[in-house]
Design a protein that fits this description.
Strand content of chain B: 5-15%
InterPro entries (chain B): ALAT1/2-like, Aminotransferase_I/II_large, PyrdxlP-dep_Trfase, PyrdxlP-dep_Trfase_major, PyrdxlP-dep_Trfase_small
Protein name (chain B): alanine transaminase
Distance between the termini of chain A: 60 Å
Cofactor (chain B): pyridoxal 5'-phosphate
Pfam families (chain B): Aminotran_1_2
Shape of chain A: globular
Number of strands of chain B: 14
Number of strands of chain A: 14
CATH topology of the largest domain in chain B: Aspartate Aminotransferase, domain 2
Distance between the termini of chain B: 50 Å
Largest sheet of chain A: 7 strands, mixed
Keywords (chain B): Aminotransferase, Pyridoxal phosphate, Transferase
Oligomer: heterodimer
CATH architecture of the largest domain in chain A: 3-Layer(aba) Sandwich
CATH class of the largest domain in chain B: Alpha Beta
Strand order of the largest sheet of chain B: 2-8-7-6-5-3-4
CATH topology of the largest domain in chain A: Aspartate Aminotransferase, domain 2
Shape of chain B: globular
Number of helices of chain A: 17
Structural class of chain A: alpha/beta
Largest interface: A-B, 100 and 98 residues
Strand content of chain A: 5-15%
């Protein structure tokens, strides 16, 4: 008997175990950085160590990271940020005057004139004012109150904050949150963490991943039996599906939210990433206000935006904001408490956001270069979207919807029963089995559709369209070749 | 009825920061000053936060030069920047995906930076290994702490989770605990003994939790905030034995480890003390240590770079810790780089070293001078009593408020020390925070302010504070 046991002490087990840790954490998954990515990193290590493989590099098409795939930052933004970091450069005549003016203005608004000082938890006030003005310009003049804008550490931070605020109740009264299937797995992870009830509504793959209010209604009615649905989340343009909601659809959703007394969360981080002809980004706020005061003064909503996507692709800055519409003033005080736990969002991210909402104007020296770079990035993405759909639709066994917007393709895979059975044998979900095989054989890292949610019995993967055009073409063709082999192997 | 009316009870129960009252007032005052309204002061001295730059300290040139070159890589080729700056920036950029600070990084942080943090920890702790897999870089240390608390705190259980927390304790942690629905189990630091942590008090606190909650962790801040106390090795050993015996998880907030200046004071990390105590303790006590680029001489609070090192955790639990961190994507890249520069500053012989060392010494000299001066002034003012400050960047003097002042505070609906701070702001343009923000023994009052400021600002602050205090005590005598 050990000394401890002899002394009547408890057996030496760990203090923090799976059994006693927060049970909600056990349900958290985030496929975008999940097991397949961890395997990809391992393979990269092996390649570095000289292990021979059928490929020389791992192409990480799993994450919406434009710079990682070679997209260049916008020169003007980086100039201003460098000036903010090391203000001695304001004396350097290699920097344009408009960049210097922006930098001076930002530094003026920072504590001690340094980007190293904390800001107010809600974000630097003049930046929130600039964001409000941007929103007003974007939405045809509909007023935006800077006081209702909260800067955040990426849009994800703001999304989680709102959910944290909203989720309450016990048992059958527990808050239900409606999310699209497929969805960006931050939502399902946050809901698991908060022990909220996840309510799935299915996007229609046959109709280009369109959202049908009838499906919202079906899902809600079903959910009311076991929880208290209070929130409806929409991602527009969609992730992983890329669909751009029509104006009519947005109106229908708003009407539905009002009828059913739901808080709307509109994730609009891809708002500049619209490629398909006939598609246009309509902000939920704009549509809401254009529906008249019956809606605009009652529907409660939060819209989210970020510096990680669009044409900037500055994921590493963790810049973002949310605008909250029709928020109860008493609730604002509560929201402030929540955001103060974060202290403040990173100042460089706030500064970057300021530049995004306040870019060079036609009469400014940096305008020409800025527009050139912005246009080039968006044009390249549009081209890649088109190329992806084109090549994938030549692959027998792939059904690929047009990439209307965002940065991803989410094709459906036709997997034979034999393949499905083999996956089961290996203890893997079929699309994970498929993606793992693709990774091992071709060095291409995608995320299985099961990570995002999909109709039972269907299989997908999400691939980014971000690699440089040549490399993208290479990847698309490799995947096509792999799929043909795979189909052959499991026929 | 608003959808938002029904909201998380945990959030509702989070207390409002006293700071909010002062911040509102400060905005008004600054506006008035801008408009030329006459006041007995020309500016507001804001020393509310542990924010050296806000208080007037300049950023370190080396750090900002490297970051500028990383942001705008054209500068890597500019001979206007020292060679070592350019080399460092070049290396850091190579370690970023796509050579850009705009890319996401691995969940734990850029692997090479995590590795260098690991090496720093090993150097600091006299050789104890620090596997990279146990280190997570986060947007500030509080973010990592909140993630760890998420794992520890089960707000669904029938018995709520408790965390032993010092009194006084900086407010972000307690706010975070409230937001997670945890029970704060206070243990009182001993003011008369320089805010010492006494293990008997930990014992008492634990006892008090019986039947109230299920305590799972002990949170210590060393060097203390706001206390300025640095724990002795002996005290740390007692704490370690205590958590081992009582089966508590140890959360060690060590963000002020760089700011140690008391005579005979030395920072030693919990990890090191634990390692030196040998098995079985060194193999079994579960520890999370936190550090940050926000404090110390760099003071880069706004960049949001911090990390947690996990020791002796169950590998099965580590898998879930990874998931919790990964859904946050990653820490801001500039914050990660700031950490790297903190753990690997210029060395003697490097072109940037002389300036770096000069700037650092200047800040340190100011800090040491400020502590001395502040203590001397505070302890000379009737009604003030300040414990020795050995480390950290705050003073936390006790104020004996006259009954009339306490009464007046009640009348205007403010806590007595908040009332004092509010008056100090209004009449002297000095912004400090009240002790009630951090917790204090019932019936006692304190203020906290940051002493990491330029010397002249501290002189001005103390001058204004002295004259205000004298008047205040007279008015309410």
């Amino acid at each position: 008997m050990s000394q401890e046991a002899a002394n009547g002490g408890s057996p030496r087990g760990r203090v923090l175990t799976l059994e006693n840790m927060n049970p909600n954490v056990k349900r958290v998954e985030y496929a975008v950085r999940g097991p397949i990515v961890q395997r990809a990193v391992q393979i990269e290590k092996e390649l570095k160590e000289g292990v021979k493989k059928p490929f020389t590099e791992v192409i990480k098409a799993n994450i919406g990271d434009a710079h990682a795939m070679g997209q260049k930052p916008i020169t003007f933004f980086r100039q201003v940020l460098a000036l903010c970091s090391y203000p001695e450069l304001l004396e350097d005549d290699k920097f344009p005057s408009d960049a210097k003016n922006r930098a001076r203005r930002i530094l003026e608004a920072c504590g001690g004139h340094s980007i190293g000082a904390y800001s107010a938890s809600q974000g630097i006030e003049c930046i929130r004012q600039d964001v409000a003005r941007f929103i007003e310009r974007r939405d045809g003049g509909i007023p935006s109150n800077p006081d209702h804008i909260y800067l955040s550490t990426g849009a994800s931070d703001a999304i989680v904050t709102m959910l944290k605020l909203l989720v309450c109740g016990e048992g059958r009264d527990r808050t239900g949150v409606m999310i699209s299937i497929p969805q960006y797995p931050l939502y399902s992870a946050a809901l698991a963490d908060l022990a909220a009830v996840q309510i799935n509504y299915y996007l229609d793959e046959e109709k280009c991943w369109g959202l049908d209010v009838a499906e919202l209604r079906r899902s809600l009615t079903e959910a009311r039996k076991h929880c208290n649905p209070r929130v409806l989340c929409i991602i527009n343009p969609g992730n992983p599906t890329g669909q751009v909601q029509s104006r009519q659809c947005i109106e229908d959703v708003i009407r539905f939210a009002k009828e059913e007394h739901l808080f709307l969360m509109a994730d609009e981080v891809y708002q500049d990433n619209v490629y398909a002809e006939g598609c246009k980004f309509h902000s939920f706020k704009k549509v809401l206000f254009e529906m008249g005061p019956e809606y605009s003064s009652t529907v409660e909503m939060a819209s989210f935006h970020s510096t990680s996507k669009c044409y900037m692709g500055e994921c590493g800055f963790r810049g973002g904001y949310m605008e909250v519409i029709n928020m109860d003033p008493e609730v604002k005080a509560q929201l402030i408490k929540l955001v103060s736990v974060r202290l403040c969002p990173p100042i460089p991210g706030q500064a970057l956001l300021d530049l995004v909402v306040n870019p060079p104007q036609p009469d400014e020296p940096s305008y020409t270069l800025f527009m050139k770079e912005r246009t080039a990035v968006l044009a390249a993405l549009a081209e890649k979207a088109r190329l992806t759909e084109q090549i994938f639709n030549t692959v027998p066994g792939f059904t690929c919807n047009p990439v209307q917007g965002a940065m991803y393709t989410f094709p459906r895979l036709n997997l034979s029963q034999k393949a499905i059975d083999k996956a089961k044998e290996e203890g893997q979900i079929p699309d994970m089995f498929y993606c793992m095989k693709l990774l091992e054989e071709e060095g291409i890292c995608l995320v299985p559709g099961s990570g995002f949610g999909q109709r039972d019995g269907t299989f997908h993967f999400r691939m980014t369209i971000l690699p440089p055009t040549d490399k993208l073409k290479f990847v698309l063709e490799k995947i096509r070749d792999f799929h043909l082999r795979f189909t052959q192997e499991f026929s | 009825m608003s959808v938002l009316q029904e909201m998380s009870p945990n959030v509702k129960h989070m207390r409002q920061l006293e700071y909010a009252v002062l911040a509102k007032k400060a905005i008004l005052i600054r506006e008035e000053l801008k408009q030329g309204v006459r006041k007995p002061y020309k500016d507001v001295i804001d020393v509310c936060w542990g924010d050296p730059h806000r208080a007037g300290i300049k950023p370190l040139s080396f750090v900002r030069q490297v970051l500028a070159a990383c942001l705008y890589p054209q500068l890597v080729n500019s001979d206007k920047l020292p060679v070592d700056v350019r080399q460092r920036a070049q290396r850091l950029l190579q370690e970023c995906c796509g050579g850009s600070v705009g890319s996401y990084t691995a969940t734990r942080g850029i692997p090479e930076i995590v590795q260098r943090i690991s090496e720093f920890i090993t150097r600091r702790d006299g050789g104890a290994p620090s596997p990279s897999e146990n280190i997570y870089i986060s947007p500030g240390s509080q973010w990592a702490l909140t993630n760890m608390l998420k794992i520890l705190v089960n707000s669904e259980a029938s018995t709520r989770t408790g965390v032993l927390t010092p009194v006084p304790c900086h407010s972000t942690t307690t706010l975070s605990l409230e937001g997670l629905g945890a029970v704060i189990v206070p243990y009182y630091l001993s003011e008369r003994q320089g805010w010492e942590l006494q293990v008997e008090e930990l014992q008492r606190a634990l006892e008090s939790a019986k039947g109230v909650c299920n305590p799972v962790a002990l949170y210590v801040i060393n060097p203390g905030n706001p206390s300025g106390h640095i724990q002795s090795r002996k005290s740390m050993q007692e704490v370690i034995r205590f958590v081992s015996e009582k089966r508590l998880f140890l959360l060690a907030d060590e963000v002020y480890q760089e700011c140690v200046y008391g005579e005979n004071s030395e920072f030693v990390s919990y990890k090191r003390v634990l390692a030196e105590m040998g098995p079985p303790l060194s193999d079994t006590v579960e520890l999370a240590s936190f550090h940050s680029a926000s404090k110390g001489y760099m003071g880069e609070c706004g960049l949001r770079g911090g990390y947690v090192e996990l020791v002796n955790l169950d590998p099965a639990v580590m898998i879930y810790i990874y998931k919790i961190f990964s859904k946050d994507s990653c820490a801001p890249v500039l914050g990660q780089m700031a950490l790297d520069l903190m753990v690997n500053p210029p060395q003697p012989g490097d072109p940037s070293y002389p300036l770096y060392d000069l700037e650092k010494q200047h800040i340190r000299t100011a800090l040491v001078h400020n502590v001395k001066k502040a203590l001397a002034v505070l302890n000379s003012l009737p009604g003030f009593c300040c414990q020795p400050v050995e480390a950290g960047i705050f003073v936390f003097p006790r104020i004996h408020l006259p009954p009339k002042a306490i009464q007046k505070a009640k009348e205007v609906g403010l806590k007595p020390d908040t009332f004092y701070c509010s008056r100090l702001l209004e009449e002297a343009g000095v912004m400090v925070t009240p002790g009630c923000e951090y917790g204090q023994k019932e019936g006692t009052f304190h203020i906290r302010f940051c002493i990491m400021t330029p010397e002249d600002i501290m002189e001005e602050l103390l001058k204004r504070l002295s004259s205000f205090h004298t008047q205040f005590m007279e008015d309410f005598s």
